[in-house]
Amino acid sequence: MGADEMVWEELEENLIFPSVKAKTSDEVLEILGGALIKKGYVKNSYIQALKEREVEFPTGLDINGIGIAIPHTSAEHVNNTATCIGILKNPVLFYEMGTDNPVQVRIVFMLAVTDPHAHIDQLKQIILIIQDRNILHSLLGSNNPKEIIQTIKRKEQVLVVTQERED
């Protein structure tokens, strides 16, 4: 794994929202995208770009019965790399990556990525972490941004150690 293996190094508490109230996927994109805009990570065009991309290339995943979405856009809408995490109070309908099946999403990892190749690595990292059902349950059960970051980083440490053993 290269220098960018710690996707989660940069997680910021003010980009973690433990109880997002939204009724539609667009609202979710507006709330989380709005936070990224406010912090200057992305351009004002980001939310519209997210919505358009979500229609073309849905980002929902059903992981062991828990719905996850990983919305992101092309780099032209992004100033700086960041990850915004939203835990939704109530499930919101997204569509499944590569299919179009509806997915009731509870956890959203929104990516702002400046390097088109890096986002593949970032997706892989997220997928590794979210395959762990216990992690998902801790994320859903937490209402504290610091705790959410610690949960993810602990899991990442385990993955890095496992990875090093395999290399």
Describe this structure in words.
The protein is α/β, with parallel strands linked by helices. Helix content is 41%, strand content 23%. It contains 5 helices and 5 strands. It has helices spanning 25-38, 46-56, 118-130, 133-141, 145-166; strands spanning 16-20, 60-63, 66-69, 82-95, 102-112. It has a 5-stranded mixed beta sheet. Strand 2 and strand 3 form a beta hairpin. Helix 1 packs antiparallel against helix 2. Residues 1-6 have low confidence and may be disordered.
Layout of strands and helices, then pairs:
Layout: E1 16-20, H1 25-38, H2 46-56, E2 60-63, E3 66-69, E4 82-95, E5 102-112, H3 118-130, H4 133-141, H5 145-166
Parallel strand pairs: 1-4, 3-5
Antiparallel strand pairs: 2-3, 4-5
What is the CA-based Rg, rounded? 15 Å
Count of alpha and pi helical runs: 5
Level of helix content?
40-55%
Strand order of the largest sheet: 1-4-5-3-2
Count of β-strands: 5
What proportion of the residues form beta strands (DSSP E)?
A: 15-25%
Amino- and carboxy-terminal Cα gap: 9 Å
Tell me the overall shape.
globular
Mean pLDDT: 89
SSE order, one letter for each helix or strand: EHHEEEEHHH
- Quaternary class: single chain
Biggest sheet record: 5 strands, mixed
Low-confidence stretches: 1-6
